[in-house]
Fold:
Amino acid sequence: MISAGILAFVSCQTFERLEVLLRPILLIEPDRQVRNSIATILKANAFETICFDSFSSFFDKVVEPTFEFDLVLTDMMDSPDDGYFVAEAAKRIHPDCRVILMRNDFCRPDDEVPKHVDAVLSKPFKISELKRTIEQQYSLFIGTQSK
Structure:
C-alpha cells in the first residue's frame, strides 16, 4: 500500500517531479541563511518543508505521537555525530523514512556513512542535485510502502 503522504507523480516511470506531497520534508540546518535558501528552493519546486535549527528542536517535534514524516534532510551540524544522531533518531521513530545528509565538501568521499543515512549531498550542491536526490529517495520510500 502506498503511503498516504504521497498523492501522485507527474511521471511514475522516471520520477522526474513529485506533484503533491502531504507530508513535508523535515529540514535540519543550523545556519539560518542556508536553511532559508534551501527551504525557498524546495518551495519553488513544490516541496513543503518544516525547518529546524538544531537536533533538539527537531527532536521536540518528532516525538509527538501524531507527527509523521517520510523524508529528513539534515546537515552534519557541528560534528558528524550530530547529523548521524539526527538520522539515527529519525529512523528509530519512523524506520521507513528516508534520510539525506548534507555535508561540507571537505569530507572525504570515502568517509564511511552509517546505514541509517540513505543519501549524501556534498555542499555546495546544485539545485538539480538536491531535486534529483529528493526524488530518488521518495521513489525508494514509495517502494518500501508498496510491499
User: Anything to note?
Assistant: Residues 105 and 124 are 7 Å apart (CA to CA). Confidence is low (pLDDT under 50) at residues 1-21.
